[in-house]
Amino acid sequence: MRYTTGIAMRRYSIIVVTFFSIFWPRMTVAWQGVAGLPLEDRGGKRDLLLAVDRVIAYLKTQPNQTVRVGDARVSTADLLRGAQEFTRIVIEAHGTPAFEERVRAAFRIYRTSHPSRPGKAHFTAYYDPVVEARTHPDGAFRYPIYARPPDLIEQNGRAYRLVGGRHVPYYTRRDIEEKGVLSGRGLEIAWVADYVELHYLHIQGAALLRFPGGTQKTLHVSGTNGHSFKSPGRMMIDEGLSNGAYDHVKNYLRTHPDVARRILRQNPRFIFFRMDDKLPSGSAGIPITPGRSIATDKSLYAPGALAFVRYDAPVLDAGGHLSGTRSTSRFVTDCDTGAAITGSGRADLYVGSGPRAEKLAGATNTYGELYYLLPR
């Protein structure tokens, strides 16, 4: 989910773009068929095949049904057929002059646009933090990561608990962190030492936890308390504490712990997790591939769709410092979503895990082009 420098943070953001229109002119801007589009893939063949293979495995588990991809309606069987044909084309022709022509012959291509920028899509990026953790608390590792409570009831995007036979809203972050309403219930699955990083785990919605001895586990969302997200970056801008830049926000919170506790606990939304050995996955359960997976509004774009992006990507030097941008274009798979990833022409790019990925995510906030490929 997002700050002014852009970190997309798969789950939540301060930039919330709502889109839906009954007006036909706007819809034609948001979704347009194109012909003769250059389709240069500036990425590796191996990671592209891996990303598409993961989509194929997912689509094979789905019942055949009609789904939405932009303004088009397509069956999941057709999405599977398209992914399989695309795999054949990549194996046989990727990196050759015939590649682009074969893709255009096999697929209808549609451009999707952001409501505020006809012909352009808004790109941000997200990553998976790598966080040191412990299975038991100690003097430093004293901030818990909670599993989903058994009394949590989620319905239609809201979360409740039963009190006297009535549904009441689930506990807020303040209830959980200040009042300790979940303490002593055996829900703690790991402990971390950095309170600010813990909050960013809740924003990202996923992480890799590293335990002593080198053991590493993947953290996945297992539920939320149903309350709305309130961005710390937005709150700090409003208070004049920050310009909203991602690095500045995070560093300020780390160096001002009293401000961090006050600011972060004003965000009522709380995330519950599960921990396992599986690969990081998107909302549909499709494993995500760095540089090859995107998150979009799943009310508009079905999981498993193939897409093509063109945008100016940030470039880091050997020291991990931003050294500029470089135009890039590549095929991606649509695997994920996020509470702040809403409307047409809006995509979150998955850039991997660790500190370099965090830098790339924080520096990505740009307009480019987003296209979907539907089999003929």
Describe this structure in words.
With 376 residues, the chain is α+β, with helices and mostly antiparallel strands. It folds into two domains: 189 residues, Beta Barrel (Barwin-like endoglucanases); 148 residues, Ribosomal Protein L25, Chain P. It contains ten helices and 19 strands. The strands form five sheets. The chain has a six-stranded mixed barrel. A four-stranded mixed β-sheet has the order 6-12-13-14, with helices on one face. It has a three-stranded antiparallel β-sheet with strand order 8-9-10, with no helix packed on it. Helix 3 runs antiparallel to helix 4. 41% of the residues are buried.
- Class computed from helices, strands and strand pairing: alpha+beta
How many helical stretches?
10
CATH class of the largest domain: Mainly Beta
Taken in chain order, the helices and strands follow as HEHEEHHEEEEEEEHEHEEHHHEEEEEHE
CATH topology of the largest domain: Barwin-like endoglucanases
Tell me about the largest β-sheet: 6 strands, mixed, barrel
Helix content: 25-40%
Distance between the termini: 34 Å
| Number of structural domains | 2
